User: Which sequence fits this backbone?
């Protein structure tokens, strides 16, 4: 059996099949590779002596490869990359990291439980008959009605064809971190429809890496056309295999209005911007170094879709609770299992002496030793919120109060009874709502409490009628 197994292993290696050994040692006995597996995988000399010390690294490499195979590489769409006039290649786009959202709602028939298809029909307002022809739209121009079909209007509004069009190249130093507004898209060439796309893409990819340039292109739908940047990524290979694939990242560049400089905003209101001292910068850097996560990977946390926690804990809890309710309804479960949320802050870790000391030093350097954060935030928050609310309400009431002719409304309610001038409930003001009456009393800083009759009387008294 040993000779047969060794022969089959040798035949498999001749066919290009590799055999990986992951040794598991007992508590009091180390795994002996020389008994059988050294001949199986062809170890001798220095390779045999270094096999056990490097076993842990091979196990980590295997976990990385398995993690990569767990995530399927599904292309989002195929786009055409127009490089020059008459020259274009095909690219496949892949989504890297996207937020998980609940699935779309599907309406079902209450009897058959089958999906319901919604249909829309147009009915003539004059005859009540169904309109068979597609609807038309028109635009008046020089006393003529120019008719358009829905397809023609869509073509008129079309700004971009959905293709990726190259505009030029810029140095990588011009691309800043804050230019990346949303998750980028990874692009890779495809030869399925346009033969030679891979060769041209490789030549462009190598030139961009060598010259340290990124490509600026025009891309987007008819509703949101925008400029994008194509940043080339070189392949990274280690002993365990490929770490980063070669390709390009499509980064969505912002418009000028999308970038708001905080320095300019504060300089207009407060004058000089306060700057941090060297001691504050040093304390902040020490705190960041303490709370930095080593070897962080998004794969260390479970998918929020398959986690079930309380609705009041985190923002993603709404999604997790949604799927928990769906599961409970589908399986007729009375109770939902409670699962810890792995994305919550590590309170025990944050309470460690090193982190607590660094945090306290940073707070002292910024706010001083006798700073009470809770009391100041409570007082400042209540005062600022109330003042802002009063100011907004007063300005809104002042603007809306100008739309009414209050003297005329008050004069319309004047009547004569026994030659004595008196005022009864003003019918013109009575037609207004309580909210409309409060526009006047708020704008003139009068008391806003009371019923409708009290507000009308207060308005008449203020106007001297």
Assistant:
């Amino acid at each position: 059996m040993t000779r047969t197994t060794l022969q089959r292993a040798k035949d498999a290696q001749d066919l290009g099949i590799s055999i990986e050994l992951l040794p598991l040692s007992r508590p009091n006995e180390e795994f002996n590779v020389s008994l059988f597996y050294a001949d199986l995988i062809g170890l001798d000399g220095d390779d045999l002596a270094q096999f056990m010390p490097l076993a842990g690294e091979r196990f980590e490499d295997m976990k990385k490869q398995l993690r990569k195979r767990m995530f399927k590489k599904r292309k989002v769409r195929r786009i055409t990359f127009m490089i020059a006039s008459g020259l274009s290649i095909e690219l496949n786009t892949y989504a890297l990291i996207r937020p998980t959202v609940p699935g779309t709602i599907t309406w079902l028939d209450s009897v058959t439980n089958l999906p319901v298809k919604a249909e829309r029909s147009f009915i003539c307002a004059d005859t009540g008959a169904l309109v068979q022809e597609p609807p038309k739209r028109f635009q008046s121009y020089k006393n003529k009605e120019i008719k358009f079909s829905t397809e023609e209007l869509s073509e008129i509004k079309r700004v971009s064809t959905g293709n990726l069009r190259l505009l030029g190249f810029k140095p990588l130093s011009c691309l800043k971190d804050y230019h990346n507004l949303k998750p980028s898209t990874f692009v890779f060439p495809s030869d399925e429809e346009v033969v030679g796309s891979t060769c041209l893409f490789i030549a462009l990819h190598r030139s961009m890496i060598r010259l340290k340039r990124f490509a600026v292109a025009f891309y987007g739908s008819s509703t949101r056309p925008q400029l994008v940047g194509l940043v080339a990524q070189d392949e990274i290979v280690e002993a365990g295999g490929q770490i980063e694939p070669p390709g390009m990242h499509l980064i969505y560049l912002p418009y000028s209005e999308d970038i708001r400089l905080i320095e300019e905003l504060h300089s207009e209101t407060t004058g000089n911007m306060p700057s941090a001292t060297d001691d504050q910068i040093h304390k902040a850097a020490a705190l960041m170094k303490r709370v930095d996560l080593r070897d962080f990977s998004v794969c260390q946390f479970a998918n929020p879709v398959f986690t079930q926690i309380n609705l009041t804990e985190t923002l993603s809890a709404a999604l997790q609770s949604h799927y928990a309710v769906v599961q409970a309804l589908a399986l007729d479960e009375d109770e939902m299992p409670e699962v810890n949320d792995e994305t919550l802050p590590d309170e025990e870790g944050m309470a460690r002496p090193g982190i607590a000391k660094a945090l306290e030093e940073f707070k002292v350097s910024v706010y001083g030793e006798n700073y009470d954060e809770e009391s100041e935030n409570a007082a400042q928050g209540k005062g600022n919120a109330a003042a802002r609310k009063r100011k907004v309400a007063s300005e809104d009431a002042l603007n809306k109060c100008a739309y009414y002719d209050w003297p005329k409304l008050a004069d319309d309610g004047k009547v004569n009874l026994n030659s004595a001038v008196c005022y009864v409930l003003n019918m013109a003001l009575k037609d207004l709502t309580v909210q409309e009456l409060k526009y006047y009393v708020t704008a003139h800083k009068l008391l806003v409490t009371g019923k409708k009759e009290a507000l009308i009387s207060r308005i008449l008294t203020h106007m001297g009628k």
